[in-house]
Write a structure and sequence with these properties.
The protein has helices spanning 14-25, 27-45, 49-66, 75-97, 106-125, 132-157, 169-179, 195-211, 217-234, 237-258, 266-288, 293-303, 311-317, 320-326, 331-336, 342-349, 363-392, 399-411, 422-432, 440-452. The protein is mostly helical.
Length: 453
Amino acid sequence: MKIRIPSFRLRLNLTERQIYEKFRKNRSPLFLMGIFMSFVLVLLRFSSVYLIGMILTAFAVCGLFFTSRYKLFNRVQMIWISFGLTALFSSALGICTYSDIFRYSRSTFLMIVFFVYLVSFLTANCFSGDSVGRVFFSLYRDFMLLCSAFGLVEYVLKIQPYKRFITSASWRNNFENYGDISLNTYRMMLIFNHPIHYGVLLMCGIIALYYIPYKNKYINYIAYALMLFNVILTQARTSWILLVLFFILVYTKKTVKNRNFRPIPLKKLGYLILIITALLFVIYLIAVLPIFEGIRDIINKRLVENDSKNPLGARITNFSIVGQIKDRYGILFFLFGGGNGFAISYLHDHPTLNGWISAIDNQFLTVFIDFGIVGLTLFLSLLFVSVYKFYKNAASIQDINYVIIILLILSGISYEFMGINTVLILFVITLSQLNKNENMIYAQRELSLIRQI
């Protein structure tokens, strides 16, 4: 006599099973998007590095239990890990050697390096794998399109419902200076910490849209228009420059890949002339029509301003800090710097142009002061190797990763993204998606996996 044991297996109908299978296949990019969104929302309310560390650790545990994948590092990723370890050593050394300089909690600076530079990357690497990056950037593209739509609503209707949720001190300070739409100094920043951050994230959204477009071309046109409109309203010159650099990278990559310089067909040349003519006509309309007066003021203020109070003058003057510190500290400082936070702490004690103490506003200069010539060499190596890999790499599926890495590093010439902010989290997530094996065979295998999803 057979005894029938009751089965507790979950029975799903076809639709539910399809939903479950799709979630199971896409759980890694969903977890990555969860990390990114957690930073966006947590930084709106808090600025505690320990809370962020707990969140990253929780995601890492989920990655180890639910994905069971951890891949080998490629050369760019190894450089980043080396940079993070150097930053950790420099910070520990700086805390012991230059303790009188630091104006803030020394342990906080050390934990920022540990959690935000290293743990965040290792956590994101738990969710890396075939086609994960492409699915993540499709989700990121959708999120930035949604933010752009809210930006249009904010600008037209003059409403900002998210103000009530702001409790973070740094976020509120930036919002009171830039984000309040009732001020003359208004620059769109939405739920992000600074207009520059929002502008740079929008540019990454445009890059994601270029490499992973929607199936409907009209939706693509609307998405481009909304994101570019928001980019203009951020008044972030950095994002405008990144747009130009992006087109240069894409064009030169195609040129290097083809190698055969063929003349442009007459039909395409005609289209190009029409596009240039249309752009010149649009620029003319913006210059003369009263309806575009607000946009004219934005462009004039951000590109033509040249007074002693604007950040551009402070960015240039801040290079004088190097001349000040080279006479005060020895060879050890030249090699490893003063540790994370040394540059901004030194600036507070020794203001530059008209008492400027807000920021160094140059990531390369900050890296040199904080982590010395060793740290700066690794940071520049990260850029140069990424450029080399971008042009050498035959797997076009990896282009989006290298383009974002290159442009985010180059954006550091006018601000600092190496801290507790969403730009750095996007940077480390993108780093985590690089593959060790990047030849064409591997790319074709990834593309076949994407089609299955």
